[in-house]
Write a structure and sequence with these properties.
The complex is a heterodimer. Chain A has 4 domains: 12-105, Uridine Diphospho-n-acetylenolpyruvylglucosamine Reductase, domain 2 (2-Layer Sandwich); 112-229, Uridine Diphospho-n-acetylenolpyruvylglucosamine Reductase, domain 3 (2-Layer Sandwich), CATH 3.30.465.10; 233-341, Alpha-Beta Plaits (2-Layer Sandwich), CATH 3.30.70; 348-437, Alpha-Beta Plaits, CATH 3.30.70.2740. Helices cover 35% and strands 19% of the residues of chain A. Chain A has 17 helices and 18 strands. In chain A, the strands form 4 sheets. Chain A has a 7-stranded antiparallel sheet with strand order 15-12-14-13-17-18-16, with helices on both faces. A 5-stranded antiparallel sheet of chain A has the order 5-6-10-8-9. Chain A is globular and about 70 Å long. Chain B is an alpha/beta fold. Chain B has 4 domains: 7-106, Fumarate Reductase Iron-sulfur Protein, Chain B, domain 2 (Orthogonal Bundle), CATH 1.10.1060.10; 111-162, no CATH class; 177-306; 312-422, Rossmann fold (3-Layer(aba) Sandwich). Chain B has helices spanning 7-10, 13-24, 30-34, 36-41, 48-60, 67-74, 81-85, 92-106, 111-123, 127-140, 144-147, 154-162, 196-200, 203-214, 230-233, 238-257, 269-275, 278-281, 289-298, 302-307, 327-332, 338-345, 366-369, 371-386, 398-405, 415-422; strands spanning 177-179, 187-191, 217-221, 263-266, 299-301, 320-323, 349-351, 392-395, 412-414. In chain B, helix 2 crosses helix 8, helix 5 (48-60) packs across helix 8 and helix 14 packs across helix 26 (415-422). Classes of the chains: A alpha+beta, B alpha/beta. The A-B interface holds A 1, 32, 35, 37, 39-40, 42-44, 46-48, 50-51, 61, 87-89, 105, 107-110, 127, 129, 131, 150, 152-154, 278, 339-346, 349-350, 399-400, 405 and B 1-3, 23-34, 38, 41-45, 49-50, 53-54, 57, 66, 68-69, 72, 85-90.
Chain lengths: 479, 434
């Protein structure tokens, strides 16, 4: 197992009271809502950042906000760390627990509570999956816009924690742009509500603060999200290029000309091959780079926008242009793209980077990324949200070879620093978690970080909420 | 993901195979979303990813199975929805098969559980015993509510509930022999009679024989063939399962050598999934590996085979059919369009119920062994089917037919019964008059 990234030393005061804590939790929760047998804790030791693993002390799976509040209040009273967990799909280790922590899993709170078309909102429990929302309202012509590739499985609570994005965020924005309100349990068990069904709330925009706070300010148990009417039509179009540079420059040119398609996704050759093998979507296999550009609207709108895009692509030497011919084909194109990470598992283990760069630097960063990868003797597949510069190099390695794993991690750090140095940032949508925690000083000045930590301190004095994440372990304010 | 096995452990071919399966998993969690038990219970331990992790931990540490692991593996329906969902291609089917064998070999179940499993394994695969048991069940039915009040006896209550109110007589299609085509012969196939299906609903294979004869296919009902072994296979009773498999391989090889076979037709998709896996199940048996692979390569679901016959397109029938895709059909055998296309071509209006990927809770003996989860899944399935407002339900697996029939008033038939009717056969009794 990788060990470059360390966790906080478990609190002795918690470890020594393990039996008593479990006995107390048994009082607070129904039996099916508490996991504490040694064997049963193992599957909770990690999330989708599987190189790092830590066993939790116990796992609480409450069914109600009241139960969440009871567990939170108890843990706060005894200084027991709490690690929130949605579906455990974090690619940055956001849900990885530690030995002295109670995992607070929201997977049993997965109901859609209310759909309000007049106000274009859905009120949902935090454990509902992202896709479930769109499926529930799809029949009435609505959808929930942010669509992380893991939308099939990831929960809205986790999306809020990481301020998740997705392919269609180019046009519709990320989670924070589509979130109207939350019900949240504070560290001491107090239940608060932020926002509501309106676009702006009186007073401070605490909702904006909570979205993306990686489970460190409280536990969101319910959310009010914005619903959007489905467009008249949508058409993904495949643009194949001979080089990644041409594809990258084309993206910058499309956006620079003022055109905002719904999505512009990029895949390099290795990624195309991986996704085609899984989805059989008909991606061209004879190109070095592929853009999936989706346009939407009426037929006339789509045609007009496509015409402009095709013209721009022509200036960048596009080799093939292929429109999806049917709804099935369109679905396959997206299925392949959205399964890219998992499908990579067919050929190797991987870690997925999440740096975001200014569009003008796409080609430069892609080139530098290959250089770094070559220098480390590794392989990479690039598949990412090109329209907003959110890159996802998948660094391929062999998890059963510790040296290979260490190299992959080191190369990943270099790539993330490269993104920051190019004027971008460490994370576009996956969150900092533990993965990018120790790089935060590369992104922020001491003063920047201190201000963020001051906010965190204001919500959670004893730093029990997801404590090993986001901020480098040294230089934290003393409680 | 990373695995930790010693070379000594990997010398066991079963462990070696499981290690390769585990290496494919990248722990992305997609599988949780389409897993019926995770969707129902909301606990990762009852999801594919959780089970994979439990199995990995157990195998890596060379531990006997324990109560916790058994609980969560037992709750797995083996519906294989996760296999359809998994982008990495994790072969969960063979991993959970291995885990079930490991459990059977290393874990002593509580007495009642053991007795119920022994009973199921001794009765269900044998048509004569099963028929006798169903007659007895009629007498026992009044006690079902009583049994269901005691936790450990719930499976017995569920068993009585599932038993049909009347048992059909011995089918005309059951006796071994060759059924000649009605027109010029254009193919020769064997048909699996199976074990539970001919007792519960002999009409399915009768319809199949009629339909195939009408299209020029000679059908052999071979002597000596029996249960495919799926039932005991899913209980981890591998030796018994392999014995069933070898027996069937022998029977079909005899037919292949004498007259040849274009296909081995299976009308219960649960059996189809297993027979298509014979090649894998018997891969380590030098005497059978090759023959079993041959048999697997010839195995076809009836709808797969019919699709190759180019049946004529018929006038619309004004009958709305909700097509329920059995898990063993859509996930186990990846047959998704063929049955629906056949029904459409035969003039039926086909409707797809919502959440079609979710299991109905039948899953072999699951509705007996895990009645509580099974009931929840059945209710969910029935709700989705009834929302289609269909006149009848069509499906390709006897387990689903029994399960869903116990939860709805909408008649449920095998796809082939509707096809036989459309192509000149008698109207199935279950189809409502209009």
């Amino acid at each position: 197992m990788a060990d470059t990234i360390s966790f906080l030393k478990p609190r002795e005061s918690v470890l020594s009271r393990r039996a008593a804590i479990i006995a107390d939790l048994t009082e607070l929760l129904p039996p099916e809502c508490l996991v504490h047998e040694a064997r049963e804790l193992v599957p909770f030791e990690t999330d989708a950042f599987v190189s790092y693993r830590r066993l939790p002390l116990a796992v609480a799976l409450p069914k109600t906000t009241a139960q969440v509040a009871a567990v939170m209040k108890y843990c706060n009273r005894y200084g027991i760390p709490v690690v929130p967990r949605g579906a455990g799909t974090s690619l940055s280790g956001g849900a990885i627990p530690q030995e002295d922590a109670v995992v607070l899993g929201l997977s049993k709170m997965s109901r859609i509570l209310e759909v309000d078309y007049a106000n274009r909102t859905a009120t949902v429990q935090a454990g509902v999956t992202n896709l479930n929302i769109s499926e529930a309202v799809g029949i009435d012509g609505f959808f929930y816009a942010p669509d992380p590739s893991s939308q099939l499985a990831c929960t809205i609570g986790g999306n809020i924690g990481m301020n998740s994005g997705g392919a269609h965020c180019l046009k519709y924005g990320v989670t924070t742009n589509n979130l109207l309100g939350v019900k949240m349990v504070l560290v001491d068990g107090t239940v608060i509500e932020l926002g509501g069904k309106h676009l702006d709330a009186a007073g401070y925009d605490l909702l904006g603060l909570v979205c993306g706070s990686e489970g460190q300010l409280g536990i969101v148990t319910e959310a009010v999200v914005r619903l959007i009417a489905k467009p008249e039509g949508a058409r993904p179009v495949l643009f194949g290029f001979d080089t990644s540079e041409h594809a990258g420059a084309c993206v910058a040119d499309i956006i620079g000309s003022g055109i905002i398609p719904v999505a512009i996704e990029f895949m390099d050759k290795p990624a195309i091959e991986i996704c085609e093998a899984f989805a059989h979507a008909g991606y061209p296999l004879d190109v070095e780079a592929l853009l999936i550009v989706e346009v939407e609207g009426s037929e006339a709108e789509m045609d007009a926008m496509l015409k402009a895009i095709v013209e721009i692509a022509g200036r960048h030497g596009v080799k093939t242009v292929r429109e999806s011919q049917s709804a099935t084909e369109a679905a396959l194109i997206w299925k392949g793209r959205k399964s890219a990470f998992g499908a990579t598992g067919r050929i190797a283990d991987y870690i997925c980077m999440d740096g975001t760069v200014p569009l003008g630097k796409l080609s430069y960063v892609l080139n530098k990324t290959s250089e770094i990868i070559d220098r480390f003797g590794l392989r990479v597949a690039n598949v990412f949200h090109a329209g907003d510069g959110n890159m996802h190099p998948l660094i391929l390695f062999n998890a059963n070879d510790p040296e290979d794993a260490a190299r992959a991690e080191e190369a990943g750090n270099e790539i993330l620093k490269l993104c920051v140095d190019a004027g971008g940032c460490l994370t576009g949508e996956h969150g900092v978690g533990i993965e990018k925690r120790d790089l935060m000083r590369h992104q922020y000045s001491e003063a920047d970080l201190n201000q963020q930590m001051a906010v965190r301190y204001a919500f959670d004095e004893d730093w029990i909420l997801n404590p090993s994440k986001v901020f480098p372990l040294d230089g934290r304010p003393a409680a | 993901m990373q695995t930790n096995f010693t070379l000594a452990q990997l010398a066991d071919p079963h462990v070696a195979e499981s290690e390769q399966i585990l290496r494919r998993c990248v722990h992305c969690g997609f599988c949780t979303a389409t897993c019926p038990t995770y969707v129902t219970l909301g606990n990762e331990l009852d999801s594919p990813r959780g089970r994979i992790y439990l199995i990995k931990d157990m195998l890596e540490n060379g531990r006997p199975a324990d109560e916790e692991v058994v609980t969560h593996i037992d709750r797995c329906l083996s519906c294989l929805a996760c296999v359809t969902t998994c982008p990495s291609g994790v072969d969960y089917m063979h991993l959970v098969d291995h885990a079930r064998i490991h459990i059977e070999n290393t874990y002593r179940r509580p007495l009642i559980d053991r007795l119920i499993r022994n009973l199921l394994a001794a009765v269900l695969p044998y048509p004569a015993r099963f028929r006798a048991a169903l007659a007895l069940a009629k007498l026992g039915r009044p006690f079902a509510p009583l049994l269901k009040r005691v936790q450990v006896l719930k499976p017995l209550g569920a068993m009585l509930d599932l038993a049909p109110k009347s048992v059909a007589g011995v089918s005309g299609s059951a006796p071994p022999g060759t059924h000649a085509p009605e027109i010029e012969k254009r193919g020769r196939v064997a048909i699996l009679s199976g074990c539970a299906q001919p007792v519960l609903d002999p009409g399915i294979n009768e319809a199949t024989l009629r339909l195939l004869a009408r299209f020029g296919i000679e059908v052999v009902v071979p002597e000596g063939e029996g249960c495919c072994g799926a039932l005991v296979h899913h209980m981890g009773r591998e030796e018994q399962a392999l014995d069933f498999a070898r027996r069937n391989v022998d029977v079909w090889m005899r037919e292949i050598d004498n007259g040849g076979l274009d296909a081995i037709i299976i009308t219960a998709s649960g059996c189809g999934t297993t027979i298509k896996d014979y090649g894998h199940m018997l891969r380590l048996d030098p005497a059978y590996a090759e023959k079993a692979a041959k048999v697997s390569s010839l195995a076809r679901d009836i709808t797969e085979y019919l699709s190759s016959l180019d049946l004529p397109r018929l006038e619309p029938k004004r009958l709305n059919v909700a097509y329920h895709s059995a898990c063993s059909m859509q996930h186990g055998q990846k047959i998704t369009m063929a049955p629906k296309n056949l029904l459409k071509a035969a003039g039926f209006t086909v409707r797809d119920p919502g959440e079609g990927h979710l299991c109905c809770g039948s899953a072999g003996t699951y509705n007996i062994l895990q009645p509580e989860i099974s009931e929840q899944l059945k209710a969910r399935k029935v709700k989705n089917i009834e929302a289609t407002k269909a006149d009848v339900i069509a499906t390709g697996n006897i387990g689903c037919i029994t399960q869903i029939a116990s939860g709805t008033a909408i008649p449920i038939l095998h796809t082939v019964e509707l096809l036989d009717w459309a192509y000149g056969g008698p109207k199935p009794e279950k189809v409502p008059a209009r």
